[in-house]
Amino acid sequence: MLRKVQIRRSGLLRKCFALATVAILPLLHAQQKTAEPVSALIHLKNGITLDYVVQGKPDGPVIVLLHGAGDSWHSYERVLPLLPVEYRVYAVTLRGHGMSDHPETGYQRKDFAADILDFLDQLKIHHATLVGHSLGSFVAQKTAELDTDHLSRLVLIGSGPGVAKNPQVQDEIRKSFAAIQDPVPYTFARDFQASTVYSPIPAWFFERMVGEALRVPASTWHGLGEGITAPESVEELKKIRVPTLLFWGEKDSIFNREDQDVLLKMIPHSSLKVYPETGHALHWERPEQFAQDLLKFIASTPAIH
User: Fold this and answer.
1) What are phi and psi of 252, to 5 degrees?
2) Residue 205, CA distances (Å) to 208, 210, 212 in order
3) How far apart (Å, rounded) are the C-alpha atoms in residues 291 and 276?
4) Distance from C-alpha of 290 to C-alpha of 283, rounded to nearest angstrom
5) Which among 25, 47, 178, 222 would be 20 to 30 A from 102, CA to CA?
């Protein structure tokens, strides 16, 4: 895997580097045909630069992976090696996370979705399977609601129909995120990531994800607290027209089975895959099973043209 270079996030150097990276992307995409992820940047029309990795044959069926709050593309680090080289796979780091830009504002679902739609448009991606976990699942929902010609399938991991039904829970999320200050406390990052898993995961991977959470600045956590608790009508889910597969761990500490039933009711052409003895980040705990089930869903669901 290619090492990433730390990029200054201000001034002319950053802009020049971002533009230069965009300029070489067509060459990178044409040459990269292995299952080894390659790092890249894309400069969006709104001025935001996103970090992502890409692997697989340029003309293969496309899979786009979106991570949860406090994570980055590394959320899928245990899944990527399990996806065949025949697939073109993009794992995107959302704004405010990892090596993507960290704007002070713009953390509503519509902001994230606009980023992803521009990403898909610039890279001329069509008939893709969009996969989102937790925060990424809400971004994926909104992207699918707004999309016209980029997606053929939708996969939601550890998702729900919107904000918590209990106003107290909603208020606790907002307050806990609003209280975070720079530098982000190690104990917060550790406990936050630990709360998403039920079964043991490799120590190296857990340490990686704690490190990614520590890279998220306080301003992003504040924005996420406001964004993920903002009212969102479940009726919007009816706009999703592509076949949708829900992945849910029965030990999920954030979303329960009732949430999955609401999604099944509101999203046309949706189905549910339940993992027993598994938590919220099921692709961390069961990467082999998840990759197998994802590929099976893609193979058994004809692409919508």
Assistant:
1) -60, 125
2) 5, 9, 11
3) 16
4) 6
5) 25
Q: Compute the radius of gyration of the chain from its Cα atoms.
A: 18
* Percentage of residues in the chain having pLDDT higher than 70: 85
Q: What is the pLDDT of residues 247-304, one digit of tens each?
A: 999 999 999 999 999 999 999 999 999 999 999 999 999 999 999 999 999 999 876 5
What structural domains does the chain harbor?
Answer: 11-300 (3.40.50.1820)
How far apart are the C-alpha atoms of 155 and 162, rounded to whole Å?
Answer: 16
8-43 tens-digit pLDDT: 334 444 444 444 444 444 444 444 555 689 999 999
The identity of residue 169, as a single letter, is V
Total length of the chain: 305
- Residue 83 DSSP code: S
CB 74 within 8 A of CB 83: no
How far CA 170 is from CA of 132, 164, 179, 188, in Å, comes to: 21, 6, 15, 18
Contact 155, 240 (CB under 8 A): no
